[in-house]
Amino acid sequence: MTEPTIHSSPQHLLGKGGNIAALLLNQPVDSTETLVTSIWKQGVIRVAVDGGLNVFHGLAKQNPDFSNFIPTLITGDFDSASPELLSHYKSLGCEVIPTPSQDDTDLTKALHIVIEKNNQLQLNLRAIVVLVRVGGRLDHIMGNIESLFIVRKRTTIPVYLMDRDNVSWLLGPGSHRIKVGSDKKGRYCGLIPIGSACEHVTSTGLRWNVSDHKLAFGHLVSSSNQLDGSEEVTISTDQPLLWTMCISEENVANGKERPEDLLNGATDMKRLLGTVPNGV
To answer: Which stretches does DSSP call E strand in 87-221?
Structure first.
């Protein structure tokens, strides 16, 4: 029997040793977002992806401490990075790798480069953390998720999409143990079958668990679920499944049904599990 894959979310990686790579996209990041900036500073590879260089420069102006953690690598097709900033940071020793191909997104191409660097330099990366902003253009969000599907074919290194409030990553077919901590009870989370239908999904550690259930768009999506206070969540799936969870203290349920839950997958989940009448 195959052993479960054990996961730790990015905030558990801080200050605990082990190498991580941090990627900054062309999306707004506030220099006061402590967790996001801490991830960037800990990265042994720090990658500004195209216009992410402009974002980094803005962060460095807001917080001078950032100037000590310049990107080790700048990459992309450079349709949004400032040419002046490219020249400036190259003169400071940043490696610049143009990736003009339009067959993949800048993020996908950057992830391929990080994987190659990890192999060439024997960095033994524990995680790759992509600093994003959940919001804005939907096509960018979907493109980021598509990158997770593409790179999973090349590496077993976990790749996280993270912002101040959320972290998401792809669970491959098999069994998984996600260390969340017993103090996280009520944090919102979800199991999203975004690539294809997952015919057999079983979970523990959630307020609304599933037992050999099918998850699929048009059938059941476990959105607006919650952590139940267990030390870890376990999930088994027969197909790739997107796991997402809130990491912000602001996103904690108070035990009451929220109006938005009546319009989304939380009610669908409870109906399927027999806890909500079909007429609701």
So the answer is: 95-98, 125-131, 159-162, 166-171, 174-179, 188-192, 198-204, 213-215
